Amino acid sequence: MSEIKSFSDYTSKYNSNVDYSALFGGTSDSSSVGNTNMLSDYAAIKNGSYGKLMKAYYAKQDAEKLSGKGDTSQKLTLMKTSADSLKKSADALNDSSLWISSEKVSKKVKKESKKIKKKDEKTGEETEVEDYDWDAITKKVKSFIDDYNDVVKEAGESNTKDVLRNASWMTGMTDKTSHLLSKIGITIGKGNKLELDEDELKKADISSLKTVFTGYNSFAGKTAQKAAGISNAANRASATYTNNGTYSKKDSSLTSSKIDKEV
Questions:
Q1: Model pLDDT for residues 85-100, shown as the tens digit of each residue
Q2: Selection from 121, 118, 111 nearest residue 135 by Cα
Q3: Neighbouring residues of 106: CB distance < 8 A, sequence distance ≥ 6
């Protein structure tokens, strides 16, 4: 099984300097020839030959996917679903209400907030205290890690360049944050998957947890951004080009979005 490592590991596998001149009929430095080509291109679009050319080109791409050179539609759909789940779980950790202690909230909110039950390990007695909801925090962190690992696994088996690029950026960002993650019980294991020590998580300083999981530029915030990039890349790769120059997917607006930038 493939593993996501760093972006540089993929530069030799994929050549980004693709020459599309054969597809569009070449270029010329001469303005007169350029004008002629422009008129020729316009005529090709008008009479439908351009659409046929593009349809044939994308049919070839689909054939390559089926032959094993690219990702199947099913794999891309699964990739998009997993990336969407990761973004959702990252956003859930970024929810400010998760990080408000009932001890510090206003009187109005305090009346509505629930007290946390804590059990004395020696006596077994349960008492209600005003604290962070550690069970809720742990549950959301575990969900985030499961979703993160699913994306890393599926992206590592992908043959779609933009999926790999966004995934490698994500794992690279995680590696750079590893020291901070280790302070809250999260470590990077085999295949760049995350591992959680729940006991260490619950003993962690709350300020460290907030640093990791809250804010646009936090680890959770950047992971959400990269998850969106992976989802968009899978969506673009699975879109079908039609003979009238559009994409068949309902969310075709994603195909014209800007190239995902490293954060």
A1: 999 999 999 998 898 8
A2: 118
A3: none
Element (H, E) at 187: strand 186-188
Rounded Cα gap, residues 262 and 257, in angstroms: 15
CA distance readout (Å), 39 to 25, 44, 75, 88, 244: 12, 9, 41, 48, 19
In whole angstroms, give the CA distance from residue 228 to residue 222: 10
Contact 85, 154 (CB under 8 A): no
Rounded Cα distance, 221 and 179, in Å: 17
pLDDT in tens, 174-211: 999 999 999 999 999 999 999 999 999 999 999 999 99
Confidence of residue 122 (pLDDT cuts 50, 70, 90): confident
